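Researcher: Next entry in the queue.
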Amino acid sequence: MKYKLILSALLFTSFSAMAQEKLVLTNADYAQAEKFLFYKTMPLVESKKFPGDTLTKERRMGRRDNNSIVSPDGKYQAFIKDNNLWIREMLTQKEIQLTIDGAKDFSYATDNAGWKHSNQPILRWSPDSKKIATFKQDQRNVGDMYLVTTNVGHPQLLQWKYPLPGDSVIAMIHRVIIDVDSKKIIPIKVAPDPHRATLSDDISSSGTFDDVDWSDDEKELAFVSTSRDHKIEKFRIANTETGDVREVFTETVPTQYESGWDKINWKYLPATHEIIWFSERDNWGHLYLYDSKTGKLKNQVTKGNWLVSQLLKVDEKKRELYFIAHGLEDKNPYFAQFCKINFNGKGFKILTPETGDHKVVLQENTFTDSYSQPEVAPVKLLRNYDGELIDTLEKTDVSKLIAAGWKPPIPVKVKAHDDTTDLYGLLFAPTHLDPNKKYPIIDYIYPGPQGGSVGSWSFAASRGDNQALAELGFVVIVLEGTSNPLRSKHFHDMSYGDMAQNTLADQVACIRQLSVKYNYIDTNRVGIWGHSGGGFATAAAMFRYPDFFKVGIAESGNHDNRNYEDDWGERYDGLVQNSDYAAQANENYAKNLKGKLLIAHGLMDDNVPPQNSLLVVEALEKANKDYDLIVFPNEHHGYGQFSYYMMRRRWDYFVKNLLGAEPPKEYKLGGN
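Model: Structure for this entry, 672 residues:
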């Protein structure tokens, strides 16, 4: 009888513990979490301005206006009509046709990179507004992509040119100069170039026609031709009156070349017959000075175990360069600083010495410097170009934010999967954390390789729904894994040829290390989610690490890069004949799924076509695996009006399957 009582007590205790863990979340719980989203937190952040802050930002060169590009003198708008390039007189609205031989799929200034397509013209006006540098883009034999609307009655077919890795024909650009007054077209005398650029996978990533630079007298146009696999860069100078081209120099790299991040870092200096060039040839992104007549290297300008991300100002008279650098801060190598150096590599100086991530806006004789950290609010200063402090312009007040319960994320530093490389991230914990409890952890992932999970390292009151998820009873980690930019070239190339690595080994290593330092993290309950490349990484995590990741949400993933636009895969994996794309495709590992997986996709996604997710769905069904699916019948890559619906479903999925709780029924998110 005594043993029965003991057994009964044990059973009752066990049942009571289970009952206590069985949670039911209410509308109030979700409303509390919603307080940490952007539209709730931003009104609580206030800038305290000081009298000296009278500066304004102005942009005028080559500005866009209603699918047109306005000339520097403001007299004309250039636009595409009937496959040809036209201009419109701003004063009279008179339209003038500049070209006449444009044709369907072989038109002038076409903005189509497959994943991105619009009616915006891609061109560069000359400084005096008398010439235009552009191209005819030949897509006549490029393969098509198809999407179909969902509606009552006959569906509408969306069809456009969308080359894929391995296609024998891709979009090619035929470079031209157009004289506006005479309407004369001067073909630039080089073979057609692949639709490629040094900055990223689009010829207009910076918002204009990339990799071209006019001389001040408009007689020359410097440009860079990029090979299909991004391994060969040819610097060329064209005579804009004859179209003759002079080959200056070529840079060849073993993986993929890029000229900077968010800005192209090469510049032609015709007055001194020089070229500022960017290269990672010594494992770090640095500036080099070339002779434009001979193509010979004069000297390396910047040097060290750090990199130049953006060349912002060239003072040809003083022979000084002003640029953004990363890797100079001991606390965090991703923090940006504004620096200057002489053309000859001497006189290096950091102009923004305060610890933090610096953002600068340049004026004629001064610049503003706003610096912050993820957990430290911004301060805005006014400096001259010697770095001397002139005035304090703004300080950000977050007292209302803190009073509302906000707490900053925790910066973390861990070792990568190689147990050697330092990685950096942000940890989000519940504001009412109980250190004696165990919390499931959610890994938000964007693997890159063109940019990672954290994004900006400056202060932000809200970073997606990371803190909101934490408020529901989770810990959230955002880690900048290996194979992403703003570190060494070796660091960025770690996944070259095998993007399916997706920094996943880093994520696993990070979570295990964090659980030692923060013992409230439960490594038996690990979730992961991401969008686009993050959707690709999430499914890969669930299939390749099925015993570690228990719940995943894969949104709009490019699960098989043979089904995503040509430039992406061919840039980071190499050409199909040189890389095993099939070995990286998620559908080939779907049979390994053990946990709970939710797949989401917009059926009108013209960036990552929905067939990417459907390949995984089909593979799961063939393997007799359970999965969950959300589709948005008429939405594109980001889900548009249904983005908050997806967010709420994401919360519900983690609450139910990772937290083991019941979410409220159909809570309405959306800032109301």
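Model: The two ends are 61 Å apart (CA to CA).
Researcher: Noted, moving on.
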